[in-house]
C-alpha cells in the first residue's frame, strides 16, 4: 500500500495558546488544509464540486492529542479516505512531527451534500471518481 497523501506545515507562533502549545482549534484547520490539498491534487476544485451541485460536509470529527506542538515545529498532516457503503465516508488523518512522533490523530465522518435537495447523496465515491483526474488519490 502506498503512503497516504500528506502536506507539510510549520506551526506559527500566533497559532499557539498561553502555554505555547498549538491551539486546539488549529488542529482542525491543519486537517482541513490537508483535505482540500488532497482534493486539489486529485483534480477536484471547490468550483468543480459546486458546478455539480454538491458540496462536502463534515458530520463528525474527533481529535486525539498525543504530543504537544510548539511554534516552529514542522508537521506532516496526512489524509486518507476510507470508503464504505451508503452515504458517508471516513477520513483518517495523522499529524506527525518531523522526527516521526505522532502529535495528533484526527478522524472524521463526511459526506457529499446535494446543494438543491439539502440531503446527502448516495455513493459519494462515485462522484469523486467522476470529478477527479486522479481518483487513485482517494484510493479509488
Task: Characterize the structure shown.
- The chain has 140 residues and is α+β, with helices and mostly antiparallel strands.
- The chain contains 3 helices and 6 strands, in the order βααβββββα.
- The chain has helices spanning 24-41, 46-51, 124-131, and strands at 5-10, 54-65, 74-83, 88-97, 102-114, 119-120.
- The two termini are 13 Å apart.
Indicate the structural class: alpha+beta
Helical residues, percent: 10-25%
> Mean pLDDT score, rounded?
95
Low-confidence stretches are: none
Distance between the amino and carboxyl termini: 13 Å
How large, in whole angstroms, is the Cα Rg?
A: 16 Å
The geometry reads as elongated
Q: How many E strands?
A: 6
Q: Please tally the helical runs, counting DSSP H or I stretches of 4 or more residues.
A: 3
Query: How much of the residues is beta strand, in percent?
Result: 35-45%
- The succession of helices and strands, N to C, reads EHHEEEEEH
Main sheet? 6 strands, antiparallel
Quick structural overview:
With 140 residues, this protein is of the alpha+beta class. The longest helix has 18 residues, at 24-41. β4 and β5 form a beta hairpin.
What topology does this entry show?
Elements: E1 5-10, H1 24-41, H2 46-51, E2 54-65, E3 74-83, E4 88-97, E5 102-114, E6 119-120, H3 124-131
Antiparallel strand pairs: 1-3, 2-5, 3-4, 4-5, 5-6
